[in-house]
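Look over both lines before class:
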Amino acid sequence: MRLSVIRFLLCATLLSAAGALYAGETVKVRNATGRWEVSGDITLIEAEERALNEAKKDALRKAGVMENVWSVFGQVSTESGSEFDEAFSSVSVLALNGLVNITDKKTEDVWDPVAKKLFKVVTIDANVTKDDVQEDKSYLLEVTGIEPVYKESEPFTCTIRVHGADSYIKFFWFGEDGASMVYPNSYEENRIFRAGETFTFPVSDKIDLVMEKADKSKEVEKVNIIIVATKKDFPYIGETDYQSILTWLFRLPADQRTFYYNMTLIR
């Protein structure tokens, strides 16, 4: 029996609150600033919310923890597709809420005479929590064989090698119509992948991964791929939606996980 990965349904499950994601040293930050343009699509309230999130990111930078916090999502850009990018933004907010405790906030409407645009500007003082757990720089996931563009119905394969520790692998696929965990699955069981050895995905010859567009009328569709390796087995039992998967990834201990991100196209 062979499996074709064609379409995935999006389960719209919204997350409530992140809580404290990390425990560690607290750094006091003053005058962290963020701004956002007020435009036809963005209201004053929405611009203030986004400016506040930018101020929180600035607070993280001032506290010297921005690099570690955003290493999980550092490769994700707005080019990754609207659904994926929106989920990334939502998870970013959850992370910011867990790391930045605002002690003072000032909001202003600022007109830029050069750009001729109105901005909401938010300035905050905050206590920023620094993560005690640092990434294991020797723990790396090497992935090869993923093409930048695939033709319709073309098979998908890639090779994986983990450096630094025997690992468990979770393979997530974010299509334009939703998300799925490609591995492990009902045909390929969860297993240990030995450090330094090379493995081909799909692991089993019972499965074919086939690149098919969800909407045949589109000329091009984007597929985001995240492959996660962990030193211990951290089961994924959440919903197969963007936010749940990204939040699970973010909450993994930094010294226990490494990951690979890529975006490809189907023509």
